[in-house]
Amino acid sequence: MTTTDQTTPRTGTETPRMLLDPGMNLTLRPMRYPHFYERYRDAIKNTWTVEEVDLHSDLKDLQKLSAAERHLVSRLVAFFATGDTIVANNLVLNLYQHINSPEGRLYLSRQLFEEAVHVQFYLTLLDTYVPDETERHEAFAAVDNIPSIKHKADFCFRWIDSVFDLDELGSRDDRRAFLLNLICFAAVIEGLFFYGAFAYVYFLRSRGLLNGLASGTNWVFRDESMHMAFAFDVVDVVREEEPELFDDELAEQVRQMLVEGVEAETQFAADLLGQGVAGLSIDDMRSYLEHVADRRMQRLGLPVIHGSANPLAFMELQDVQELSNFFERRVSAYQVGVSGSVGFDEEF
């Protein structure tokens, strides 16, 4: 990989560099994409540590769960065990290399730190919820041994591999492949798989259960919302710089990607809820997932797929105000509480 200046020869003349041009631009001034830098600064305001989450308060609740609810929690924890590690791997192996913006890479560096905190959080969750060492090992092996989780992991690995061999984005096809990888991890993996997992957590909290897990999930939710926002910012920039990449073929590929994502997450829902969890049905989870997928399509400026409403009333009753207004006040429970503002247009 080579370092470059602000311009590069593309057709025999000097033209401004574009975000996906090969190279390693190191020049922060003049700043080409200041909104990426603002994303980085907003992320710093959201600093939290795993030690601030009291998961031990959940231990009594775990004893109250029905067999079906214990199965739900077991599968959910098994997914959490490796989900953020997969995202971190794609960030390091694919995204950082090709987003040629030093301010953008500042944000990606911060995101990698946040993924590490999430991994630590879920490791602590496993250590607290699953005292038996053999059972913990089985949870970490879920990507190989539990079909519904393996199906989702294989989906992720396929998209990681789709651009793994690209040393640089030198052609139109290379850039389209990178865009699809970026959109997949933002809209499907972080924006659908993780949001489905959050819904189970908030369902349990609506029942007065596992408030420690829910409080930690609030913080992870903020991080994931910002990860999606940054990724969609990158898509917006590329759309402005290279509109020819965004044709009907790309739109159809994104549509099929989200359809496949909904199917994979619905299979996971059938596994989690298959023993009959009172108050949450597989059909409702599917409708919710379709609703979320449509939100992702709308954010990408594409037609919705399903037209499904959100059937999970309890999602509207969770601490949405607390989530959306996090940056508008000082938060004493956080290691870093900084005043400021950021807008989230994402809905559950």
TrEMBL record:
Q: Which UniProt keywords apply?
A: Deoxyribonucleotide synthesis, Iron, Membrane, Metal-binding, Oxidoreductase, Transmembrane, Transmembrane helix
Q: Which domain of life is it from?
A: Bacteria
Q: Which SUPFAM superfamilies match?
A: Ferritin-like
EC top class named in words: oxidoreductase
One Pfam family from the record = Ribonuc_red_sm
Can you tell me where the transmembrane regions are? Answer: 178-203
Cofactor requirement: Fe cation
GO-annotated molecular function? ribonucleoside-diphosphate reductase activity, thioredoxin disulfide as acceptor
Q: What is its EC number?
A: 1.17.4.1
**Note describing how the cofactor binds:** Binds 2 iron ions per subunit.
Reactions the enzyme catalyzes: a 2'-deoxyribonucleoside 5'-diphosphate + [thioredoxin]-disulfide + H2O = a ribonucleoside 5'-diphosphate + [thioredoxin]-dithiol
Q: Which family does it belong to?
A: Belongs to the ribonucleoside diphosphate reductase small chain family.
Q: What does this protein do?
A: Provides the precursors necessary for DNA synthesis. Catalyzes the biosynthesis of deoxyribonucleotides from the corresponding ribonucleotides.
Describe the subunit structure: Tetramer of two alpha and two beta subunits.
This one is known as Ribonucleoside-diphosphate reductase subunit beta
Tell me which species this is from.
Nocardioides cremeus
